[in-house]
Fold:
Amino acid sequence: MEVLKKTKTVLCLDLGIKTGYCIGYDNGIILEFGTINFSISNPNKESIPSRLHEFVKEKIETFSVDHVYYEELNFSTTTYATQAHGAYAAMVIFACQVFKVEHTGVGVKAIKKALTNDGNASKMAMMHHAKDFCARRFKAFSLKIHDDNTADAIGIFAYASGAGFKFIPKNVKKR
Structure:
């Protein structure tokens, strides 16, 4: 008799003003992904971290998320970027604590390595590999990856699901 492993629902986030996200099961099945731009249409004048917090809460509730993975920066080029990323991470962690959801920060090199097998991959390589990663699961999904934020979120998903680098796409140019 085969014992079925219960899958967990994971939410993966590439944090920023333009936050990339990917939702799926830890067995590699993708449910939804995209990029949300928090800098546009804000009639209530809420802060970006507050809007991110609401977005994460909504996804946790809608998809019954078991674990949230987010990009963890160990360095940044400016003090402001470091502080902003810290605020975004704090809002994600707060939402996870409210809903008693596990959360894990993932380093940039680990994300890139999970998707491309190269810890120093360019944005272009990440996008190429993300499209290939999704095309192997659902053909229509690969057409919807328009930016590096979504590609990075898919890289985090590849890391989280363990379904990462198992192939080498053709014609990837390094920059």
